Amino acid sequence: MSEEVLTNQTASAAQAAAPATAEEASKTKAKKKKSKAKVSKGKIYVNSTYNNTIVSVTDLAGNVLSWSSAGRIGFKGSKKSTPYAGQKTMEDALAKARERGVTEVDVLIKGIGSGRESAVRALQGSGMSVLSIKDQTPIPHGGVRPKKPRRV
Description:
elongated
């Protein structure tokens, strides 16, 4: 008798766990991965600071397709600010951009770090078509307010 009760309980538990309709079954399945849209033209933003180099690849509307930074590649500490780290960062970002179909790029550079020149050289050596290169480094004008004169 107790075995019959156990089998009935396990059968009802299995029915409760299984989806009743096809709609419920489709909701519980893993979602399909979206196919990434192919983009032929894009913009590459290079932000080079004293401590790091960050490269972002966007479409013409400004939506980020891929990005990379010296820290993401594995450089740590003062090695992130080296020209070699800037070169490797650009190579990593370009490899991801090629997967998305980017072939022609405009380059926008910002900052005064040591990785900016090597990043541009890596881009030119990659075989990707460079349409333009612009420097967007902010330039101070007027400067800070001078100190008040000392009264003795």
